[in-house]
Amino acid sequence: MKLLKLMNLMFFLYMYSSVLISMIIIRSHIFMCLIILEFIVISLLYLILIFCLLNDCSFYLFVFMMTFYVCEGVLGLSLLVCMIRTHGNDYLICMF
Q1: CB neighbours of 52 closer than 8 A, spacing ≥ 6?
Q2: What angle do CA 13, 63, 57 make, to 5 degrees?
Q3: Are 47 and 62 in contact (CB under 8 A)?
Q4: CB of 89 closer than 8 Å to CB of 28
Q5: Burial of 70 from C-beta contacts in 10 A (0-12 / 13-18 / 19+)
Q6: What is d(CA 23, CA 3) in angstroms, rounded to the nearest whole number?
Q7: Phi then psi for 51, rounded to 5 degrees?
Q8: Which of 79, 86, 96 is nearest to 33 (CA)?
Q9: Helix 30-54 with 2-25: angle, nearest 10 deg
Q10: What domains can you pick out in the chain, each with its CATH number?
């Protein structure tokens, strides 16, 4: 059981660190940044799922956070569409 906890934690850290490294490397397009942020959200959702499974919690927190993450993704895509309509591209340089 202890090995399973350690493996899950290592998998979460691998997901989270690889996403942060890719966020540092890829910074030109807003769409790529939104996809990277969604992978961060998926890794955090995985951590919440593992926490709920190991501590025999109810899955209300998991469903609650999943609802917020879906709303966050929709809001990001709608902002991307608005920016493409006004500026004509999705480069981050156009924002500054």
Answers
A1: 58, 59, 61, 62
A2: 75
A3: no
A4: no
A5: exposed
A6: 30
A7: -60, -45
A8: 79
A9: 170
A10: 15-95 (1.10.287.3510)
Read off the amino acid at residue 14: Y
Contact 16, 45 (CB under 8 A): no
Return per-residue pLDDT of the chain as tens, 96 residues.
677 778 888 888 888 888 888 888 887 888 888 888 898 898 889 888 888 888 888 888 888 889 999 999 999 889 888 888 888 877 777 655
The conformation of residue 56, written as its DSSP 8-state character, comes to T
Return the structure tokens found at 45: 């959702």
**Cβ contacts of 91 within 8 Å, gap of 6 or more:** 28, 29, 30
Could you tell me the pTM of the whole model? 0.77
Angle between helix 60-87 and helix 30-54 axes, rounded to 10 deg: 180
Q: Side chain identity at 32, as an amino acid letter?
A: M
